[in-house]
Structure formats: structure tokens, C-alpha cells
Amino acid sequence: MIVVGGLSLVVGALAFVFVFAYLAANFGFFGEIALAAFFLLAGSSMLDEPRFPKWLGWCGIVFALLFFVGAFRNVTSAVQPVADADNVLLPL
After folding, report:
1. Is residue 62 over pLDDT 60?
2. Helices marked H in the chain — which ranges?
3. Residue 31 CA: distances (Å) to CA of 43, 55, 71
């Protein structure tokens, strides 16, 4: 076992895993909501900007609303099809 500064790397790795699991479980939902808000703001900004076509702004707004609904997939399974559609559309 490698010891660095009095702590073993195994204990440090375990602490990292547990902290990461805690943050992912509790803050992942808020991150998805924040990303949906970003998409909503970007889509609405595209509607006001003459350099972008209006349909692109509306697509951004619709996707933001679908992404917001899909964020609740861990709360209820009723929105799982919306979350699956979001996962397909997200790379586009």
C-alpha cells in the first residue's frame, strides 16, 4: 500500500467515490434543471437575434421544455419516454 502524507491512497480513493456518488445523486437533478434553463435562454435569445432563423430558436425552446420534463425521470417513471427522446436529441 502506498502512503502519501500519512493517508493511504486507498482511503483517499474510497472517499472520492463516496463523495462523487453523493454529489451525483443529490445535485445531478439541479444540474439538469440548470442546463434546461440554459437551453431556454439560448432559444429565446435566438428569437430576438436576426442572424438566426426563428425556427432554430423555437426548436431550442421546445427542447428546453422537453429536457426540463425529462429531468424528472428519477421522480416518476411516467416521463421516461420524454427522457429517452431527449437523450437521442441531445447530441444534435
Report:
1. yes
2. 9-48, 54-70, 80-89
3. 18, 26, 9
Q: How far is CA 1 from the centre of its chain?
A: 37
Would the CA dihedral through 42, 44, 47, 48 be positive or negative?
A: negative
Q: Is 3 inside a domain boundary?
A: no
Q: Is the pTM above the cut of 0.70?
A: no
Q: How many folded domains does the chain comprise?
A: 1
Judge whether 80 lies within some domain: yes
* Residue 47 included in any domain: yes
Query: CA-CA distances (angstroms) from residue 62 to 34, 46, 71, 91?
Result: 16, 13, 14, 15
